[in-house]
Amino acid sequence: MTLLVISPDYASHLLPLAALAMAWRDRGERVVVASGPATAGIVDAFGYERRDLRLGRGSNPGVIAAGAQPPDEGASLRGFFRATEQGALATLRYQAQERLTDLMWDPVGRAAETARIVEDLAPDQVLVDHLAFSARLGLLSAGTPYGDVVLGHPSALPVGSEVYGVPPAWPVAIDPDPSGLEALRELCRTVSERFTDEWNRAARTLDPDHRPVDDAFAEHGPLVLYNHPSELVDDDRRRLLPPHRFLGSARRAEAEDAEVEAWLARGRPFVYVSFGSFLSVRGDVLARVADALRAIGATAAVATGSTDASQLGDLPRDWLVRGYLPQVRLLGAAAAAVTHGGNNSVTEAIGSGVPLVVLPFSTDQFAGAAAVEAVGFGEVLDPNTASEQQLAGALRRVLDLPADARRRLDAVAAAQAARPGPEVAFEALASRPSATSAVIASTSPDASR
What we know:
Elements: E1 2-6, H1 11-25, E2 30-35, H2 40-46, E3 49-52, H3 71-86, H4 88-103, H5 107-121, E4 125-129, H6 133-142, E5 147-150, H7 178-206, E6 223-226, H8 235-238, E7 244-246, H9 258-264, E8 271-274, H10 276-279, H11 283-295, E9 300-303, E10 320-322, H12 327-331, E11 336-339, H13 343-351, E12 356-358, H14 365-375, E13 378-380, H15 388-399, H16 403-418, H17 421-430, H18 435-443
Parallel strand pairs: 1-2, 1-4, 2-3, 4-5, 5-6, 6-7, 8-9, 8-11, 9-10, 11-12, 12-13
């Protein structure tokens, strides 16, 4: 059996997809990853084969640097970072305005290249990042079924009256101005219309019989795999979802790190801190988090990413501070975590039974933070306004989580340990027709009988 995994050239996208593919690899099946060159090292580390497939103008092997990007992508990133300093609505407006170039880069060319790779490999099953829109167009035009993996918060695939780019829920600490929120909604509707026009034009080029869709952001494959715990999704939204499975999380195996293992062997409780590969550029917020941790006398493991550790002040000698740290391993031992609310961080923490202090900056982080807050698995603060004292208070509270929340969080972690996300994905795809048989059926003269 051959599994094809299709991912944009970003570590935060490829890592969970590669973790899902471990269920195939560990059964001795062939796994081939189609992605860009920046993440080739990740593919090699998992022991997979690779096909080159660039799906966007930017890339990120693990820690982002605007200066290492093509000029237009670097300028876009710098604009994004500036927008995060102005707050939630400014950031979401900026992201909406950038969306067309971010999501539909050379759609016909990328779709055709995806179809060529599928034809060459003849995979039995396909996993694709939901946000790899041009690749999904290629699969659609080739008649190839696939597992549509929503790696972010489930609202990355809008349902009902939701508009892509507008959070369906907000945490209490972030209360956007109503007029500003309505302006954002109108902007996102306009972007959705333009994006859908682009989708339909590309699809017609690939397949003249294509039937236009009303909202390309709401399109999905025959089976949607949400990389998210079902316990964080309310019943009203669950009723609107397409055919799906919740994976819980896609925690990956990480190579043993001798320094980390020696640090953990001391057995002291600690707080894990990371703002991911993009938002780690916000050293001002990381510095406030470090101040709050020192104020409560906590030990910490801090992944500084793009921020120089010197910006965090005098660091206690018992802290573990590096640009990059093995997140899954450390979450497996942490007492609490501080995060920007990226879906990988949230799902991996909850899958490890770790309560969170969430400081959301952008995109689906607001909805993800609201879900964590709603179920009592953590606290949420505004990263731009939270003081050292407020951060310290939130840290104390999550380190002493109420008994009921602690029990429910432990139950979620135990359920994921018993049935990990990769196994759920494997079982879900195994129960459906293979990609190869579906293509043969769709091209057979007798297919309509």
